[in-house]
Amino acid sequence: MKINNISPRSTDLSTEANETTARMIKIVNSLAIGASLLAFMLGCVLYYLTGASLIFYPAMAESALFLSILLITRHGRPEYGQQLMFLLHSISIWYFGILLGPASQIYLFAPFLAFCVFLVYHKPLAQGLVLTSSALVMLLIEMNYRHPLIKAIPLEKDTEAILHWLVILSATFLNGTVLYYFTKESRHQNKQLQLLVNQLDKTNQAMRIYVRETTHEIRSPLNVVNSILQNYIETADPGRRSVQVGIAHLEAIHFACQDMQLVMSNALGWSKIEEGKDEISNSPFLFTGWIRQLCDTYEYLAKRRSVHINISFGGNLPEYILADKSKLRTIIVNLLSNAIKFTTVHSIITVRAVIKNNQLFFSVADQGNGIPAEKKEHIFEPYVSERGQQAESSGLGLPIARHMARMMNGDLTVNDNPDGGSIFTLRMPVETTIAPALETTAIDFSLLHGLKVLVVDDDHLNHLAFSLALQRMGIEVLLADSGAQGIVKARMHEPDAILMDMIMPHVSGTEMLSQFKADPKLKQIPFILVSGNCYSEVREEVIASGADGFLSKPVNIEQLYCILKDLVVMA
C-alpha cells in the first residue's frame, strides 16, 4: 500500500510572488524609459555640438535598446531586463567616457553603477565580481587619459564647458533616479520584514494559545484514566500478579483515550483556524448514546469532588443527528469540565438536551457560586478567573466553545441557575438523520495467522503495545531495540513485514529504510514507518523515503490490520 500525497497549494506565497514581480517590472520599465529619453536627448545635443556621427548613431542605438527592455519585462522576466539595463549603462558610460575624454568626468557615474549592482545582483559573490570588474574598467579608462591608446574626439573650449554641465546634470539624474528606487526598494523590504515580524508574533501568540487550549482539553480525560488506574493499583492485593477490572471501567478508559486522541487530531486543524479556513464537517452519528458515554466518562472525574452528573433528555430528541461531531464534542467537554471545576462539593450537575423548532438546546447546570451579572459576558474572554470566589481560571474552553457554536449557526449563553450556580446553554440548528450504513469491510484476523512481523522501536512500552495487537491477530512478533539489531533479526528470520519507529537514537527510521532497501535479501519486505507525529510534513517525508506504508501513534488495531492485509496478504 503506497501512501498517496496531495501537496497543499501555497496561495498566499504565489500572490506575494506575483505582486513582487509586478512591482519590479514597474521599476525596471520606468528606469528603462528614463534612460532611453536621456540617451536620445544627449545624443542629439552632443551631435549638434560636435557633429560626430560616432556619438549620434550609438546614442540612438542605445535609446532603442533601452526601450527593448519593455518587451523583455512584458513576458514577466524583470531580472533579465535589469541585467540588460545595467549592461547598457555600463557600456554607454565606458564608450562615451573614452570617446569624450577627461571632459566626460566618468567618475561621477561610479555611484550610479554601484547602486545598480546592488539592485540587480543579490548574491554577494556576483556583487563583488561585477563591482571589481566595473572598477577595473574605470581605472583602465583613467589610465587611457594619461597614456592614450584610444584618442578622444577633440573638443573646443566652449563645447567642453557645455559638456561639463551636461555630464553633471546627467550623472545627477541617473544617481538620483537609482538612489530613489534603491531607497524605495529598501523601504519596501523593511515593510515586508515588519509584516513578517508581526505575522510571526501573531503565530507565536496563536501557538501559545494552542498549547494552553490543548492542555486544557486533554487534562480531563487524562484525569479519568489516571483516577481509574490509580484506584486499581492502590487497592490491588500486592501478593497477586493480576487484578479483576470491571468492563465499565475499561470502557471509560478506552473512551477517554479516544477523547485524547481526538484532541490531538483536532490540533492538526489549528492552521486552518489561524488562516480563517476552519470549516464545518457534518456527519451522521449516534447522539443520545454518545452524550451518555461522554457524561459517564466525566462522572468518574466528578466523583473525585463528590459530584453527580444527572442526564435528562427530551422525549422528541432524535437518536441520530447530522452535525460536526468534533466541534460539538469540544463544546460539550468544555461545559462539563468547567461545571465540574466550579460546582460546589457534594452537588449535582444537570445535563439536559431537547429539540425545539429544529433547534438543539443543550444545557449544563452546576450548583456553584454563580457568576455576577456584570461578569457574564467576560466569562467568554480568555483566562477569566473571577467566577464568584473561585480562583481557578476558566481558561480558553468557553471562548472557543462559543466560537465553535457560532460557526455552526448557533450560540452559547449563560444564565443563573435557580438552584444556585450557572446554566450554560448551547443552541444550534440540527438535522435528524438515520443510522449511517455499516462499513462493508470485515475484519478477519485469520487472514494474518502465521505471519511474522518485526517491530523495531527503542521504547519497550511500544513493544508491549504492538505485541498485544499483533498477537491478537495470530501474528508471530519479533522485537528489536535498534535499527542495527533490526537488520540482524530481519536477515535471520525473514519477516513478512517490518514496523519501524521514525525517531530512534543514533539513526532515524527513514535512514534505516535505505539500509534495508539496499540489502538484496530484505528490499522486498514491506516496510511500514510509525510515528507519533501525523502532520502532513511527516507523511511527505515518509513518501519521499520510499516506505510502503505509514502509521501514526496511537496505532488503531483496525488500521494495523488493514495495512498488513493490503501489503502482505493482498500483495
TrEMBL record:
Keywords: Membrane, Phosphoprotein, Transmembrane, Transmembrane helix
Stretch forming the signal peptide: none
Top-rank lineage group of the source organism: Bacteria
Gene3D superfamilies, A to Z: 1.10.287.130, 3.40.50.2300, Histidine kinase-like ATPase, C-terminal domain
Matching InterPro entries: CheY-like_superfamily, HATPase_C_sf, HATPase_dom, His_kinase_dom, HisK_dim/P_sf, Sig_transdc_His_kin-like_C, Sig_transdc_resp-reg_receiver
E.C. number(s) listed in UniProt: 2.7.13.3
PROSITE patterns: HIS_KIN, RESPONSE_REGULATORY
Domain Histidine kinase: 213-432
PTM-bearing positions, type 4-aspartylphosphate: 501
Transmembrane feature ranges: 27-49, 55-72, 93-120, 126-141, 162-182
Any Pfam family matching the protein: HATPase_c
Catalytic activity: ATP + protein L-histidine = ADP + protein N-phospho-L-histidine
Domain Response regulatory per the UniProt entry, residue ranges: 452-568
Protein name as annotated: histidine kinase
Lineage, highest ranks first: Bacteria, Pseudomonadati, Bacteroidota, Chitinophagia, Chitinophagales
